[in-house]
Amino acid sequence: MVHWTAEEKQFITSLWGKVNVAECGGEALARLLIVYPWTQRFFSSFGNLSSPTAIIGNPKVRAHGKKVLTSFGDAVKNLDNIKATYSKLSELHCDKLHVDPENFRLLGDILIIVLATHFGREFTPACQAAWQKLVRVVAHALSYKYH
Questions:
Q1: Helix (H, G, I), strand (E, B) or coil at 4
Q2: Which of 1, 43, 104, 129 could in theory staple to 142 by disulfide, Cβ–Cβ 3.0 to 4.6 A?
Q3: Following DSSP, what letter does each residue of 102-132 receive, concatenated?
Q4: Is the Cβ–Cβ distance between 137 and 105 less than 8 Å?
Q5: For residues 58 and 113, is the Cβ–Cβ distance under 8 A?
């Protein structure tokens, strides 16, 4: 079990309350697909992913990014039980979707960049440290069911 300080919880929950899930989620997934193009293979049903412009403008990318970040909100609500919170998603990504678990870490790193971009000075080094810890814990939880 992960130990969260009161300060870490405060940084995470207060910033999360200001996050535009649709905007940040869509941007995070689009950045993942652009920066790490090999991740596109998991999204072949999304249509045109041929260029950064196509990816950013793709409504399926935006919709799935929102879905991913909405799910990330479950971690924020369940900081003391993240592994159980993501148990079924871990199983799905492992057994059915066969997603390389390294991609969870990459998406977490991209999310940190998106948050820093959107929140600027409010995303202080201490806030970043709390969020970096959270994205690592979520990536670990999503990787848990892998053999």
A1: coil
A2: 104
A3: HHHHHHHHHHHHHHHHHHGGGS-HHHHHHHH
A4: no
A5: no
Give the dihedral of Cα atoms 133, 137, 139, 141; nearest 10 deg. Answer: 180
Look up residue 12 and give its two tokens.
């995470």
Nearest to 104 by CA among 63, 67, 54, 142: 142
Give the helix, strand, coil percentages of the chain, each rounded to 5.
Answer: 80, 0, 20
pLDDT digits (tens, 9 = 90+) for 125-138: 999 999 999 999 88
Rounded to 5°, the CA angle 87-73-88 comes to: 15
H/E run at residue 58: none
Give the predicted TM-score (pTM) of the model.
0.88
